[in-house]
User: Fold these one by one.
Assistant:
Number 1:
Amino acid sequence: MAQAQTLEECQQAAERNYPLIQQYGLIDKTTELTVANIQKGWLPQVSVSAQATLQSDVTAFPDQMQQMYKAMGIDMKGLSKDQYRVGVDVQQMVYDGGVIKSKKEIAREQGNVQTAQNEVNMYNVRKRVNEMYFGLLLLDEQIKQNANLQNLLSANEKKLASMQKNGTAAESDYLNVKAERLNVVQKMTDMQAQRKALVRLLSTFCGIEVKNPVKPPLNSKRSTLNSERPELKAINAQLRLADAQEKALDASLMPKFGVFAQGFYGYPGYNVFEDMMNRQWSLNGMIGARLTWNIGAFYTRKNDKEKIQMQRKTAETNRSVFLFNNNLEQIQQNEDIERYRKLMADDEEIINLRSSIRKAAESRLSHGIIDVNDLVKEITNENAAKVQQCVHEIEMLKEIYDLKYTTNN
């Protein structure tokens, strides 16, 4: 397993690893096969048939003519009521009014719609990576501050142990700081367990090993919605499909012209008089041209066009809804970014003030002016301020990159 560090590497790896990526190849192959099958509509259509019939009546000469033939010594048996035929029918389309072309275009646009929808699902992978990646960054910062807090408490614990030996501090003060340090150690154990689980989850999702994620650069540049956002591309694909379907309606109204050839071996054949006399199987065939015009498409054309128009309106409505919701997301994310920026402006000063107060508390404790509880409180306040700064920074970064996801920039 390769090792990834940056957010972009994780997103790209996750997209390659996500099982839905295989859907692209399946859609392309299905579309290719569908178009190939439609194209075969230009090949000669051959049908083979065989039939045997027993009829209640057949074509025959009037009795007077049969008596006349007998008087002339001619045995006119007439057609037999049992008839047989084995034949082949070949038809070749010459002009179909654009039906095959429109069907291929519809098949391609349907494939494009499926591909675009698949891109929408794949795009959501980025958001899931963002959630895990920034969650991991936040845990790393909290673990770092926890380690610093442990070091600070440990230093004060050693100082109080020395003061206890010298008789300038009570044992309870020493135990109080030690208990607080052990409490912080417990929190470290809990956070490390959370980090291990999150690392495993992110690594499995990306298909690569993610050990030490790096903080992405702070890019506060405002961005607007990119027209390449997959949801918008999917809507455009649906509109193109509606256009292709409307062209197919026009093609269905056109007349069709083709040539054909028919042949069969059987009884009776085309020479009925010969078959009346001999009742023998014979080879028969014909070739010709056929012009057909099915006006049935006129009956439903108005309703079919209205249905396609409804599809367009639905797609446009979906576009409006998406743009509306996307704009709300951008407003919220920009406001959150600005809020975190204002909060971060005071974080450093708050940390400096808390550090000064904590150092003063340590000095007063050494002179016996305050008790150890006040010192622990000031140490905790200082650590809380540092953690708060980390949270503000990571949360602002997350909002910035969520905004990049929202606008596809």
Number 2:
Amino acid sequence: MPAIRYEFIKKCKQTGARLGRVHTPHGSFDTPAFMPVGTQATVKGMSPDEMKAVEAEILLSNTYHLYLRPGQDIVKNAGGLHQFMNWDRPILTDSGGFQVFSLGGMRDIKEEGVTFKSYIDGSKHLFSPERAIEIQNDLGADIIMAFDECIPYPCEYDYAKKSLERTTRWAKRCKEAHKNTEKQALFGIVQGGTYKELRIQSAKELLELDFPGYAIGGLSVGEPGEEMYAMLDCTVPLLPEDRPRYLMGVGSPDYLVEGAIRGIDMFDCVLPTRIGRNGTVMTSRGRVIIRDAKYARDYDRLDPECDCYTCRNFSRAYIRHLIKAGEVLGIRLTTWHNLRFLLNLMKKVRQAIMEDRLGDFRNEFFTSFGYK
């Protein structure tokens, strides 16, 4: 039996977006889904129980960071990530490709793999496709990712083509190295930059390898939204209807809704926790920079339409005070709210698909949030 199974439920008559459910060894999650990022085996500022309270059904952790600290052996000896971080629901680990390639001058790319320097102590390491799979097998996530190259934007055509072809060769090596197929599903990653023909080439090459799920990588790296949507429009229709589709590194509300309309099932991003730590929150009326002086005497909730712990118990004035005073509770409350906001947004997206009105929902939400 495969490690995961995608269950199709319904297609929105208005947009073509799809509603589904992914079944894994550690439970199921509804799609389209946003996956909060727990880079270091924890979502910053949040406990596992709190993540369940905001209705997170699956978390993402990072192979690169966990390999460097605490080390794959420590996680493996603890019984794997689920035991180590006390999370009994699904987990996805990325391959570390994005983090490695974001190091710039601190890494060297060859056919064998990528040699890089640790950001912790400067020590040298080699990530090959085989090594990335070995580490992820030890971490024990339900869904793991092939090792790929995430190219920058903009990128010349010739390099983008060379890179995607190497990513395909690496994907083959990842599949050959992956032995724990009954408990962990390995996803291939479509690359090709912002070139339509390269995206199509990459998708077709990966389809021949027959992965249980497919991710679209190398987007949301600085390109305009219109270019991202164009790449999704030419790529998603090529991907199998019976497999999950994952758009990597995307988490802004507009991209989540537009991605769902284009048939994406899974998203992840550090956005809600990162901007929360900087004192910015997403609300039904757009972004609020709670640090601003105008909120010093604002005793309303962050978002009157939100049901999260933060909005049920504290005022904007109090949260601003905490953040200005450097109190940890302040950024915990903004983080809690932002996570709940995005997870609830996806819940509304799923409901709109069920009711065949996702297009109407998009227009209503974009107007209220302040998008043009």
Number 3:
Amino acid sequence: MSKNLTTRADDYSKWYNELVVKADLAENSGVRGCMVIKPYGYAIWEKMQAELDRMFKETGHQNAYFPLFVPKSMFEAEEKNAEGFAKECAIVTHYRLKNDPDNPGKLIVDPNAKLEEELIVRPTSEAIIWSTYKGWIQSYRDLPLLINQWANVVRWEMRTRLFLRTAEFLWQEGHTAHTTKAEAIEESEKMMNVYADFAENFMAIPVIKGLKTETERFAGAEETYCIEALMQDGKALQAGTSHFLGQNFAKAFDVKFANAEGKQEHVWGTSWGVSTRLMGALVMTHSDDQGLVLPPSLAPIQVVIVPIYKTDEQLDKISAVVNGLILEFKKLNISVKFDNRTTQKPGFKFAEWELKGVPVRIAVGPKDLENGTFEVARRDVLTKEVVSKDGIVTYIGELLEQIQKDLFQKALDYRNSHIVEVNSFEEFKTVLNGEGGFVSAHWDGTAETEETIKELTKATIRCIPLDRVKESGSCVFTGNPSSGRVLFAKAY
């Protein structure tokens, strides 16, 4: 199998696009800016979804589903949110087509089928959900209300890239309502920590927890918590956000509850979400010039077994041993595939599974059966070793755990070596124009300075780290007083 991947060093963007397509994760569709997620890519997303769904339910959340369409007047109710998403909205104006009398076989919009009120195709669901909550919440006994939905949303992006930015994408969005401000803030922070836990322990991606600046905040939120990751090309990627909404949406949709004393109060809200953009993060954090590298926790196939044989008799003997091995793997919940296709040679299979990032490959031939051994290859470091048949299942289980840890450590070492403190704007530009990464610099706290730096360098403030040390300093651009460093980076 010929991979012919562009190398990361030659063209990182092209390497990424080719890898997503050649590894059978996704492809562009016949709809502008939209993608088809192929079975192998969707299998990875399903594993992400399953783990996150488990984590949400363990923290008390329930799943529900809300409409794809939002009446325009409802969407406009929370002004900041409506303004923030206005340029990305797709709008439904009519509900019927009819035959074009001038062009047989063609359809045109029926002018008599205009909707009484235009419908927005949801770019996010706060409006429809909070309008629903008004009927669900009457008393403090109805709170907290902890709801999540798995859905698709549409944001009419002009420049798109598979997984990272598409006009339609899959995601989950949590929307919760609380009796107090403190409880809502606690929820926002809790969900940020759930995302960080998932990113680090399942995706093997180290993240920095922080707060967005006011200009980078979610439209309609009072505070946005985020987790920021660093890709191999030195660009940052926002991997998840959790928003403290204050009472903004409760007031916009008049969502009130009677407290223990019978007094009416507006509820306090949060929303939080991650999307199929995580697929892009997974590809870019670990993969190499040979193809995908997947952490075992999210790999649809953790172990692939390839038989090496010349005759049907040899294949039968290998199959008998392998089938017994597969049963042992399944007892340990290790997903395994026996690639016994007769239509492809072993070399083709090796290249295919290497491209698709399967963490461990086992090769078995007649000599292996004689010697009571297997050839075991690690995808992450591209090494091979001969392992005794005895205890092979336990060995592989431990190896998968080691690969998971090693991938995280490698990504962490890269991230940590690409956080650079700078104290002048010249240093700032030198780092960004070099290897990139997170630039730790003092900022005077103004939106004007933030915007100017963005215009001059294309770098944005990714976050104000939650664990940052408060220290007096001078803004890297204006020289005005600063109370601490923030992290800048070019980003996806």
